[in-house]
Write a structure and sequence with these properties.
The chain is α/β, with parallel strands linked by helices. The chain contains six helices and six strands, in the order H-E-H-E-H-E-E-H-H-H-E-E.
Length: 170
Amino acid sequence: MCRKRAHRLTRLCAARSFRALFPMTTFSAKASEISRKWWVIDASDQVLGMVAVKAANLLRGKEKTVFTPHVDTGDFVIVINAEKVRLTGKKEEQKSYMSFSGYVGGHKSENVRARRARHPELLVERAVRGMIPHNRLGRRIYRKLKVYRGNSHPHAAQQPETVKLTARKS
């Protein structure tokens, strides 16, 4: 009995000395030390959800090794050709976007086809907004998303890199 206890104590002391020699600290990124890149996603003939997932992951910085959940570690994302994004199934006619102004009779509703005709950038913006945190950090992250209807954008000076979306196996 004593022998087992003594062996357990020596293992415990060895573990403590190991911790003293090699402290294990969790890395936490600082927002001022993060290097930010610019990315371009071409949304033409791409499924809306796949574009939004890729954009949200880049905005949050989840693909970086220094990802820290409570710090903005993400990059800037430019989405072009938002009017050519594709939806699967019957969502073009059946999916509806609703808004409420807060006043009596202030409920507005429109389907994807009407929104695409009026303001196609909102399709991508709303899909990405639903995939980032809904707090102060999410609002700061959301400001780094730039969505454009056509093929051109005014951010050529930032030298953005193109993101290749992987085709889904069906």
